[in-house]
Structure formats: C-alpha cells, structure tokens
Amino acid sequence: MKNKKKDLSISIYLLLFIVSVIIVVVLLLTISFRQVLKDSLLSVAQTNSEQSVTQVLNTIENYSNDIVNKMKSMSLIINESTDTFNIKEQMETMVNINEDIVSIIIYDMEGNILDYQSNTPLKTDFNQNLSFDKRLFNSNNEYVITSPHVQNLFDGEYPWVVTVCQKQWSSSHDKLVYVAMDIRFVSIARYIDDVGIGEHGYCFIVNKNDDLVYHPLQQLIYLDVKKEKIDEVISYREGNTINDGVIYTVKDVSKFDWRVVGVSYVDELVDDRAITAIEIIIIIALVVMIFAIIILFVLSNKLTKPVRSLVDAMSIFEKNAVDFKYTPVRGASEFNKLSSSFEHMVIQIQELMDKVKKEEVALRKTELKALQAQINPHFLYNTLDSIQWMCEEEKTEDAITMVGALAQLFRISISKGYELIPIEKEIQHAKNYLVIQSYRYKDQFTYCFDIDEEVLPYLCNKITIQPIIENALYHGISRMVDEGEILISVHKVNDDIIIKIKDNGVGMSEEQVESILKKERTDSKGIGVKNVNDRIKIYFGDDYGIVVESELDVGTMITIKIPAVMEDRYSV
C-alpha cells in the first residue's frame, strides 16, 4: 500500500502564501513603481519649477509694464509739447515721485544729451556713457531695454540700472530723438536672488542676443568659476526642457527681449526622493512579513480545528440541505459567531425553501389580475429562478436577501387594496426591487437614494417609483457597456413632494420623450411610465404627474410631482 502524501496545515499554506505574495509585491514594486514614481516626481518637479518661473515672470511683467507706462507718459509729453519749460517740469515731477527712476535723458541721434532730469548733477566729463547704446536704440522695436549696468553720468551716485529707450519725434527740438529712462534694477535682482527651486535651483535672465541680463551668481560667471549654457538656453522653446539631468524652464517677457530661465536638478528633486520612497516600501514590507509570520503561528491552533469542522458541515449541508442537522463548533469568538450564523442560515434556508414553494402557489392564486398589472411575470419568473439557483449553489445569504426583498415587494404592492401608501413604504418597495435586480444584473449597475426624512409619512400612489426604475433598467442601462447608475431623490418643495429618478443610460431622442407619455397599452416600451402618470393625474388632477427629460448617450431624468398629503382625502 502506497503512503499518502501528508497535507500541510492551513497555517503553513497561509504562511507560505503571504510570504510569497509580499516578496513578489516588493519585487514588482521595486521594478515598476520606481519608474512610475520617478515620472510622477519629475512631473511635479517640472510643475513646481514652472510655477516658480511664472512668479518671476509675473513680477518682471509688472515691472516692465510699469516702465512702459511711465515711458509712454513721458514720450507723449515730449512728442506733443513745444514748451521746453513744461517738458523739464514734467520730467522733474516724474523723477521725484518715482523712486525707481534714476534719470530721464533726451539724446539726439548721435548720443549727445539735449536735456535731462535727475536728483544729482550731471558730470562735466565721463569716459563713456554706459546708458547709451546706439546700435540697440536704433532697432525697429517700439521699446528697447539694455542689460543692467552702472549709471555713470551723475555725481555722487552709481546705481545699478537698466535703460529703457524709445525713438520718437520731439516737437520742442523739431527732430527725432531718443527718450531714455534709467530705472533701478535692484528690486528685481533681490527678488530673483530669493527664488529657489529645490535645494540648489535658481532663476536668471538672458536676452535673445545671448547676453546675460542678470544671474544670482553673476560674479562667479564673470570670473569663469561657474558655467551657464546661455547659448543653448536661447534656443529652447518656452516650457520645460531636460538636458543632462537639469530641468530648464523658460518663459519669455512680452514687452522686452528677455527670457526668464529656471534651473533645477533632477537628482535632488526626483532621484533622491524615488530612492527614499522605495527604501520605505521595502522596510514596510519586511516589517509586515515579520508580523504576519508571528501572527500566523500564534493563531494557527485556534483557526485550524474550527475551520475544518465548519468545512465538513458545509460539505454535508451541500449534499442534503433538507434533512441536515447542524451541531455548532466551538473555538475563537469569531468562529463561534460564524458557527452560530451558519446554524441560523441553515434554519432560515430550510424555512425559506419551504416558504418559497408555498408563496409560488399563493402568488398564482391571489389577486392575479392586480399582480399582472403591477409586476412583470417575466421579472417574477427570473427572480424565483435566481433564488433557486442561489439555493442550489449554496449562495444562501444572497437567496435570503432576495427572497426577503421579493416578499416585501409583494406585500407593499398589495397594500390591503389601498391606492395611497406612505412614501416610506414606497421607498422600501423600490429598494426591494433594486435589491432583486442587483442580484440579477450583478455588477451591471449601482443605485443611490437621497431621501428627506420629513417626507416619509406623506402619502403617494403605490407602485410609483418601481415602474420608473424598471423602465430605466430595461430600456436604458441594460443596453450599456459601462456600469449604469440610478439616483432616486425625494424632497418636499413648498406644498408638493418631488420625486426624481435619474439614470445614466442610453437616453432617448426628443421624439421618444414626447411620445412616452402618449403610449397605448399595446406598446412594448414605456407603458410603466404612462401607467404611473395616468394614475397620478386621475387621483390628484392635471397639475400633478410626470415630466421626462432625456438626452441620447447621457441619460434620463423623470420628475414626479404629487401633493404633500398625510390622509386620503382624494377619490377617483
């Protein structure tokens, strides 16, 4: 006789399974998550860099707009006024009220000073006027701006400025002139110095002639200690460019030929964080693995015996559910509860199996005509068939829920012959219907109720909501590929109750919407909607009833309006 291979215990299987899963998950995360995380962090880093550069750009744009506005104001005076005293007075006023303006100078086309205004006197001799650049001033641009430089024309002050110039006609001098403003650059420089992107990132400004306008490390660049790829940056398009592990973010200044460039580093913003995240994942996985092993060894003895007993009982119950007698097993408190629940479930299933048989007979004999008008026999057949299948497949909890919902569905639909029932019961009727359908159309749709508690005692026609939901399921959601959704809301508005049933099904055309409430009983579609509408209008009058709104491939919303009443004071 051959020796049987010894089976491993549940705890060993669980231990091997959990350890294997954790190892596989850690390996997969290490391989795939690193790149995903790196891409995500890179996207975040680029976004942060772009935001920082945009802030700098906005500051410079405001700065340039302010400069241009001041230049426009001064140029207009010079262009239109022939009174040199008035021009001088206006120049003096502008310099005095604007701290950023160091001087306003009017040059002829050769660079000779025709007029000026500053708070300090003009030098009688200077080697070179650093604020005058004829080649730049003579361009076709409306406004031109120089790179930052030291202003050396006036005694006692050597401010760092940019010169903004406009070529135009001067009425007082009767010829073309250059109107130039020397504007302090120190406020922009300080702002750029304070901008940081990551730990070592920074911003700088270049112009489109490959000239460096401003750099926080300008002195080191001039001393050739630090290198900056200005010629490459000029060729980059606006936005983000990654080159040799460096993220360059470029934005153009609209008024001048400047570019704001943000520099950040991939390794400090992305790689270091990705490595840290993976290390954390590995550590957590190891800790989880250790705890899982300890817990499994502790619980193995408590779990194995009750589990085996319960499995054996289920196997016997599967073979002979009618005559099965269950003896509860004892173990941990959770297994005691599970055993008791199984015992209760066995009793309920046995009772329900008998009850279903009796109800099938009773349903065929009582109020057949009313039930045929209210519940689709095909729906009833499929529901009972689903219950039978669930019982055969030991889906006992689902069968219990479905049978209970079906029983309540019939109970409420009959309602002792009353036409009006409380909204609370009508909602329960709809919920029972949806419970049944959710089992029949597994994972095909979801539903949600939004009910105002104060409306529950008010009355409504029985079987008002269920036919609308049925219509939404059969003619809207059942034709969908994606998951359907049904939303039911009931609220009190002034003296009326408003019930809305909304779905995201295939919807209807305008012609279908117009005809749905006009269908005759011989029609195959929409009869439930018309039936509800007719009963409401007969009972409450033409001011109440149904409004249908629908759009193809979007969905349908049906609004039901009834009066808010708590007693049956209407008669047919």
UniProtKB/TrEMBL annotation:
GO terms for cellular component: plasma membrane
E.C. no: 2.7.13.3
Primary localization class, coarse: membrane
Cross-referenced InterPro entries: Bact_2-comp_sensor_kinase, dCache_1, HAMP_dom, HATPase_C_sf, HATPase_dom, His_kinase_dom, Sig_transdc_His_kin-like_C, Sig_transdc_His_kin_internal
Keywords, in A-Z order: Cell membrane, Kinase, Membrane, Phosphoprotein, Transferase, Transmembrane, Transmembrane helix, Two-component regulatory system
Histidine kinase domain span: 465-566
Compartments where located: Cell membrane
Reactions catalysed according to its record: ATP + protein L-histidine = ADP + protein N-phospho-L-histidine
Membrane topology, from the record: Multi-pass membrane protein
GO MF annotation: an example: phosphorelay sensor kinase activity
SUPFAM superfamilies: ATPase domain of HSP90 chaperone/DNA topoisomerase II/histidine kinase (SSF55874)
Source taxon at top rank: Bacteria
Domain HAMP: start-end pairs: 301-354
Residue intervals passing through the bilayer: 12-33, 280-299
Pfam families named among the record's database cross-references: dCache_1, HATPase_c, His_kinase
Stated name of the protein: histidine kinase
Species this protein is from: Thomasclavelia cocleata
